[in-house]
Amino acid sequence: MMQNTIVKTLIYDKQVRLLLIDNTKLMNDILSLNRGTNKILKLTLGKTISAVSLIAGTLKGNQRISLQLTMSEPKYKIFADADANGNIRGYLNEALLKAAKKQLKDLSLNHLIGNNGTIRVIKGSEMHQFTGITDMPYRNIVDDISHYFNQSEQTQTFIGTNLTLTKDNFVQHSNAVYAQLLPGASHDLLIRVRHIFLTNRNFFTNLLKQPNIKIEEKLSELFEDVKVIGYSPVQFFCGCSKEMFYGILHSLSENDLPNHEDIETVCQICGRSYHFSYNEVQRLLN
User: Fold this and answer.
1) DSSP 130
2) Which of 19, 165, 242, 276 has its Cα between 20 and 30 A from that of 192?
3) pTM for this model (two decimals)
């Protein structure tokens, strides 16, 4: 089994770069932290994370990519980021979490994104960053992220995801592909990859679950001239710490800090809590 491992390949005589992954474990690691959300929001966050987990395989060195998806209701936002080491994060903002059980209970993904949804992407290293913003005409996350690459980076890209939740919103399976045309390749090849993925979902769902699988041999059942060029792992990584929250609390004014009780802080991304005792709070006030 090759869960949480990006398989990097070239297909069609090195004209298309194809990345694929079974990220079921990654999805459960992250979505299990969002127990209070409904199915639509879990699917929305899941599709975003699934796409970003594959984009991690295109990064090098100290590069990272951060996505901010803003719905037509601008207070509703989704965040996800990845680095070249395969560290993946993703979360819903506070407004979406609060609205999950009431306003958004029966809302479809199409209506949640609406007519004015946008994707904002920051990509690169600390010294060389590029920011791009595009609309979300497809209202389904993955085609909209593909649209970003096509429009903002002028790179013909297809991203496809399979994500199925059980009745109790546990991830039953999740896999994805990322296909990108290399210079000089015909756009027809990308159309062909898209068609193959969409009409062979079971193949991709089962592909990386098989032990001792020969990736090139199996993919050759669907694609021509398959060549595996590498593998890279992905994993959930938040990076929060008590020291980070200590700095946040230290930046608050004296009126914002309770001076006669302990404080419990919770990371919005991973759900980890950090306890600050009364004495620690007093040191912040002095």
Assistant:
1) E
2) 165
3) 0.87
**Residue 19 near residue 54 (C-beta atoms within 8 A):** yes
Three-state secondary structure call for residue 163: strand
Q: What is the mean pLDDT of each run of 10 residues along the chain (286 residues)?
A: 91 98 94 77 93 96 95 94 94 84 77 95 88 96 95 92 90 96 96 97 92 90 97 91 80 70 80 81 72
DSSP output for 69-116 = EE-SSTT-EEEEEEETT-EEEEEE-HHHHHHTTTTTTT--HHHHH-TT
For residue 241, the 8-state DSSP code is -
* Two structure tokens written together for 214: 């020969």
Give CA–CA dist 16/10, Å, rounded.
Answer: 6
CA distance 252 to 265: 13
Q: Which of 222, 280, 271, 225 minimizes the C-alpha distance to 249?
A: 280
Planar angle of CA 38, 43, 44, nearest 5 degrees: 100
